[in-house]
Amino acid sequence: MMRRLLRYRDVPIGLSHFLENVLKMEMNWGTAIIGIFALALCALPFILDRFSRSRKEKQLLGMLQGAAHQHDCKVDIHGTCGRIALGLDEGKKALFCYAQRADRDIAEYVDLTQMRSCRTVKVGRSGHGQHSDASIEQLALCFAPKDTNAKEKRFELYYAGTGTYLTDELEFADKWTKLINERL
After folding, report:
1. Closest alpha carbon to 121 in 140, 93, 143
2. For residue 70, how far is the Cα from the chain centroid?
3. Are 112 and 122 contacting, i.e. CB atoms less than 8 angstroms apart?
4. pLDDT tens-digit series, residues 37-91
5. Contact (CB, 8 A) for 88 and 78
6. Is the pTM of this model over 0.70?
7. E strands within 2-152?
8. Residue 121, C-beta contacts closer than 8 angstroms, at least 6 positions apart
9. How many CA atoms lie within 13 A of 156 on its CB side?
């Protein structure tokens, strides 16, 4: 008995051929419904997490805009990271920070016309020994005033004592430091 080898030109190609074969198949609708239900059940936690994050971000932005409105400003550029929102009024050169802490909410404001520069401050400790890592215990945006007698202003973005983990705060701080320094 001779077997015939398939060559490339013997195999039909194309979407229409694929659809014809799919439509010819007999489908067990019960299995399909169970598969769709299982897929939806697996995707549900991710969908709910996204909605929850979106709702929290909108709430943070609303509180940030409320803080800006108290100073007769508006938020032109904004960003959120975890429980912190930063907003910038480009017209009045004002920066706002709204942070939700476990014990209280903090709304802060800095007039950028009175500031000379902005930098990211990382306070931490370095480990000792062969397998140790440096850890960041505190992360803040620090504003140096034009007046040398005035105190620095800080927006605390992360503090290890709050029980949260450092995630995207470092990139967030660096991004905002660059953005603010471009406008000073």
Report:
1. 140
2. 26
3. no
4. 999 999 999 999 999 888 988 998 999 899 899 988 899 999 988 888 999 998 8
5. yes
6. no
7. 77-81, 84-89, 94-100, 105-111, 115-125, 135-145
8. 138, 139, 140, 141, 142, 154
9. 15
